[in-house]
Amino acid sequence: MLQAVADMDLSESYGKVGVPRQLVIKRDASSIPDAVAKSGLTLPLVAKPLVADGSAKSHELSLAYDQYSLQKLEPPLVLQEFVNHGGVLFKVYIVGEAIKVVRRFSLPDVSKRELSRNAGVYRFPRVSCAAASADDADLDPGVAELPSRPLLERLAKELRRRLGLRLFNLDIIREHGTRDRFYVIDINYFPGYGKMPEYEHIFTDFLLSLVQGKYKRRSG
């Protein structure tokens, strides 16, 4: 699904949206260092399990700081270049035509000094799901500012068309130090909407629109 974002190459006056460079590893952890070297990915790397069964393990993220620790990871997984983003991500909920955005705390930035000093693999369970909302936190405005509405509307419209989905959410980050450089780091189809503001009204309107659309097609 992230490939759909990469294929869009979305760039306009409101911002540019891409995906971090990534690599899929299906088996054999011992081959990971060579595969990463050949692909040209830059450390540190976020490792995400390919398992999507709702278990705690399926939500676990790992951050690998050095080449030698990569073989400690457990395939199948996706390796994604880590982009510093001020420790905040934007969870964008899409329900039909409706879009809602909430801030969530995320992984902290990694400085060049930390990268040179740290080694190994650090594991983070359910980062964006369990994290407290960052909507009311006292954040740097450059970190907290939401992506522009027109940018999100165009992104959502294109993904609805390309993926054929009406119920999904996106995890979006802003590259630290920029105002309009965004990355989609995850897409979830039919996610949990319990933490989306006003989800009862939005879902009711969505279901009504489906029924009304079906009735109009029958009447026509």
From TrEMBL:
<keyword id="KW-0547">Nucleotide-binding</keyword>
<dbReference type="InterPro" id="IPR011761">
    <property type="entry name" value="ATP-grasp"/>
</dbReference>
<comment type="subunit">
    <text>Monomer.</text>
</comment>
<dbReference type="InterPro" id="IPR008656">
    <property type="entry name" value="Inositol_tetrakis-P_1-kinase"/>
</dbReference>
<keyword id="KW-0479">Metal-binding</keyword>
<protein>
    <recommendedName>
        <fullName>inositol-1,3,4-trisphosphate 5/6-kinase</fullName>
        <ecNumber>2.7.1.159</ecNumber>
    </recommendedName>
</protein>
<keyword id="KW-0808">Transferase</keyword>
<dbReference type="Pfam" id="PF05770">
    <property type="entry name" value="Ins134_P3_kin"/>
</dbReference>
<keyword id="KW-0418">Kinase</keyword>
<comment type="similarity">
    <text>Belongs to the ITPK1 family.</text>
</comment>
<keyword id="KW-0460">Magnesium</keyword>
<keyword id="KW-0067">ATP-binding</keyword>
<dbReference type="InterPro" id="IPR040464">
    <property type="entry name" value="InsP(3)kin_ATP-grasp"/>
</dbReference>
<feature type="domain" description="ATP-grasp">
    <location>
        <begin position="11"/>
        <end position="216"/>
    </location>
</feature>
